[in-house]
Design brief:
Layout: H1 2-17, H2 20-23, E1 29-34, E2 37-41, E3 43-50, E4 57-65, E5 71-80, E6 87-90, E7 97-104, E8 112-115, E9 127-134, E10 138-145, E11 148-150, E12 155-157, E13 159-167
Antiparallel strand pairs: 1-2, 1-13, 3-4, 4-5, 5-7, 6-9, 7-8, 9-10, 10-13, 11-12
């Protein structure tokens, strides 16, 4: 969890510091179905490389935010060792770590953080990520899931499916 929060904070700082012209490439996007509504965000970035805190692990990451910089979506997969490949990764598999989070109200006093955590009276929060393409310049894939949970406010947000094609910055 600590690495995920660190990754999210780095992503927030990266995206908040990016100029719109540098990240709004029409070829790159993250599409999300949030509470039944599709959104497409163009301020996106992807990374694949050694974990910044532990070089024995490899991180695959996709980060996106809305134009107002008030919502942020982050998807991270961490594996042991230097090899990360295309394929299917599920949040309930203990052989690697899948972390998905969503922030609402970013850069405001009303910021709320949601992640894969089980809510009372709901099925387990679960996500499946299909990484379909990794090149030197971009990352592609899809994901499905049910909800993310904010345990502080006891609220959920339904992010049920999505697709990404992002520029690889690392």
């Amino acid at each position: 969890m600590k690495n995920g929060v660190l990754t999210l904070l780095i992503a927030l700082l990266f995206l908040a510091g990016c100029k719109k012209d540098n990240t709004d490439d029409p070829d790159y996007y993250v599409k999300l179905k949030i509470n039944g509504n599709w959104v497409t965000w163009k301020t996106v970035a992807g990374e694949l490389g050694p974990d910044l805190a532990n070089a024995t692990k490899t991180d695959f990451g996709v980060t996106a935010n809305d134009d107002a910089l008030t919502q942020v979506f982050d998807l991270t997969i961490q594996v042991d060792g230097p090899n990360f490949s295309t394929g299917t990764y599920t949040s309930d598999n203990s052989n690697y770590w899948v972390f998905i989070s969503h922030v609402t109200g970013a850069n405001t006093a009303n910021m709320k953080f949601y992640d894969i955590e089980d809510a009372t009276n709901r099925p387990s929060s679960k996500y499946t990520v299909n990484v379909t393409s990794i090149t030197a310049t971009e990352l592609r894939g899809t994901f499905t899931g049910n909800y993310l949970y904010n345990h502080i406010d006891d609220q959920t947000i339904d992010i049920t499916e999505g697709e990404f094609k992002v520029k690889r910055v690392r």
